[in-house]
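Q: Convert this sequence to structure tokens.
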Amino acid sequence: MGAVKGALSLFGGTLRDLAPIVLIVAFFQIAVIRQPVDNLTEIAIGFVFVLIGLAIFVRGLEMALFPIGEALAEAFVRKGSLFWLLLFSFALGFGTTIAEPALIAVSKEASEVMVAAGVIDPGPGSAVGFARALRYTVAVSVGVALVIGVFRILKGWPVQWLVIGGYAIVVGLTAIAPEEIIGIAYDSGGVTTSTITVPLVTALGVGLASMIKGRNPMIEGFGLIAFASLMPIIFVLIFGIVVHAWS
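A:
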């Protein structure tokens, strides 16, 4: 009986989260477009699949990723090795980003734009090489971002000053970066925060802050995602400056 109530609560919460999207789409379809919905049955079945998938995904986060992140943070703190903690942070950021589908898509489109703009030589080899280099640049930047974020938690540095300083660097680099790379760099900061990276990194930060004496998880535990979105912009702008200089 308890399992049934838990399942109903889980699906009810997911349905409540999806309700605004459904209402907005229905309103514009009925009141603005005023056209019948094609394949309504298929859409309804697809919505049920989305509902089930999101509910299972949220439950999976609660059962697996959040406990894993907190357990890893606790284990590294108990081990007392700063080197392994920072190495793990870099590997986590790099590994969860390099195969991100959104990043692959952005890199492919970016390579085609750079070829069309004449920044890189035309040809499939150059385009593929640029896309691969862009992906690795973003992945390395996320790894570096997590290292900085974890080190900030250990030292207790205020997150706002690091973020403000980071965006000041972004503004400075934007002024000298090639126009073709600016939009790509800014988009690269958004595609790195995937559905796997965010919960795992958040749990790592909160778990790490909880294990360190004198740290407040509500203050020091959050902020890693901000670095993971900021550092790719800086790295890709520098990457664009270097590529433009060599082209």
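The CA atoms of residues 42 and 48 lie 10 Å apart.
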